[in-house]
Each structure stands twice: as structure tokens, then as C-alpha cells.
Write a structure and sequence with these properties.
Elements (H helix, E strand, L loop, with lengths): L1 H10 L6 H21 L7 H12 L11 E5 L7 H7 L4 E6 L2 H13 L5 E5 L2 H8 L3 E7 L4 H8 L3 E11 L3 H6 L2 H7 L1 E11 L2 E10 L13 H4 L3
Parallel strand pairs: 1-2, 1-4, 2-3, 4-5
Antiparallel strand pairs: 5-7, 6-7
Length: 230
């Protein structure tokens, strides 16, 4: 599997070392082993995991400054946070998830891969913000919610001048259009959209820059960002 990882990553312009390939292989094997117990992913075939989870997670890696701090909101099985950490050991990463069983899995992966300066936290985004408000250089989120909801969960976490990297597929422009009010209220502005294609599938990373403080009222509790998005 290691050679396949190195080859596929190279096809998309990413240099993967043998030790990194070994970490990804261990991650994959453990993910598949624990998947039935934790219900982590519907994608389990080796090449599919490499492309749709590992490679997809690292697409915006060149955007991240050396030694910066990052929080992954709704990380699930560790995507994109753990692949980013494997590729960039210099990053200081917090993995946030609302399910205790997933956090247990994440802590086991962190130990298995001997990763440093990475922490898995069991909390909801609207609760952990009490500790993490405007504390991070970057926030990432993948496959969590529509963008107007996601902005409310993510923008409160980043410092002014920091960025939110939001992973989207084909409907990125549509979601961005419906999120203009939310962007203004939560203190963000569109920096750019990174367009990629993986196996003919369109991937978009929406990069939002934090330009002013998010009002302390946000994020709202009681699931309001999802049930009544701004």
C-alpha cells in the first residue's frame, strides 16, 4: 500500500516520504479495523480511502503557514486534521468532535501514529468556543454542513487575519452566494476558492479570511445554526 500511496500523491503534486506513507497505511488499516465498531466511514476500499479521504484532506496544505495552529471542526474519523498533521508535523492541531466514541478512536490513532502537538476534544462547536474563541490561525471543516451554517460554527475560532478553509464539492459557488449575510455578520470575507479535480470529481476549498471579530452571541446553541441559518 505504501508504494500506491506515494504514487497517487505524486500524481497530484504531493511528495510523500516513506515514513509518512507508513503512517497513512497504519491509519488506513486501523480505520478499517475499527469502522464497524465506531461507524466512521462508508468508504473503506483502499484506493477510495487514499483518494477520497487522505488526498482530499491535504489539498489546501500549501496555504498553511509554518508552525501555525489549526482546529478541525466536526473531524469525524480525523479528516482533514490527521492527514494534514502527517504531512505537516509543524502544525499544532485540535480535532473537535461531538461523539465520544469517535474521540476515543482519534486518540488511539494519535497514539498509534506517534503524532505530537495534536489533541482530540469531545465537545460541540458551540460549547468549545468558550475555550477556543479567536485562538487559532486556521479552522478547517469537511462534510459537516452548508456554508452559511458552517461559518457560524467556524469563524468564531480564528484570530483576525486568520482563515477558514471549508471543503466543498460542486455547489461551492451556490453555497457562497447564499452565505453573504452570514459572512458579514460573523466577520469574514472571501479570500479565494481553490479549485481541484480528483479523478474527474470537482473539489473546492473556500478560503475565508477573518477581518473583524465575531459578535460574542455566536455561535448560537440549541442547533440554531442548522435549523435557522443566517
Amino acid at each position: 500500500m505504501k508504494e500506491k500511496l506515494i504514487k497517487i500523491f505524486a500524481e497530484y503534486g504531493f511528495n510523500l516520504t516513506h515514513p509518512q506513507a507508513e503512517q497513512f497505511e497504519k491509519y488506513y488499516l486501523y480505520l478499517v479495523q475499527e469502522n464497524e465498531k465506531f461507524n466512521l466511514t462508508a468508504i473503506t476500499e483502499e484506493e477510495d480511502v487514499i483518494i477520497k479521504h487522505f488526498l482530499d484532506s491535504i489539498l489546501p496544505i500549501k496555504e498553511l503557514k509554518e508552525g501555525s495552529s489549526l482546529i478541525d471542526i466536526g473531524t469525524g474519523a480525523g479528516f482533514p486534521g490527521i492527514p494534514l498533521k502527517i504531512m505537516r508535523p509543524d502544525l499544532k492541531i485540535t480535532l473537535l468532535d461531538s461523539l465520544q466514541k469517535r474521540v476515543k478512536f482519534l486518540n488511539e490513532v494519535i497514539s498509534l501514529l506517534n503524532l505530537k502537538n495534536i489533541t482530540a476534544v469531545h465537545s460541540r462547536a458551540e460549547d468549545y468556543v468558550k475555550e477556543g474563541r479567536e485562538k487559532y490561525d486556521y479552522v478547517v471543516s469537511r462534510a459537516v454542513a452548508r456554508m452559511n451554517t458552517l461559518l457560524e460554527y467556524t469563524l468564531p475560532y480564528i484570530t483576525i487575519g486568520g482563515q477558514a478553509l471549508l471543503y466543498k464539492s460542486q455547489k461551492a459557488e451556490e453555497e457562497l452566494a447564499e452565505s453573504q449575510k452570514a459572512l458579514s455578520i460573523f466577520g469574514g470575507t472571501l479570500d479565494k476558492i481553490i479549485h481541484k479535480k480528483i479523478k474527474e470529481e470537482e473539489r473546492n476549498i473556500i478560503v475565508i479570511k477573518k477581518v473583524k471579530r465575531t459578535p460574542p452571541l455566536y455561535p448560537r446553541g440549541k442547533n440554531l445554526p442548522k435549523s435557522k441559518p443566517i
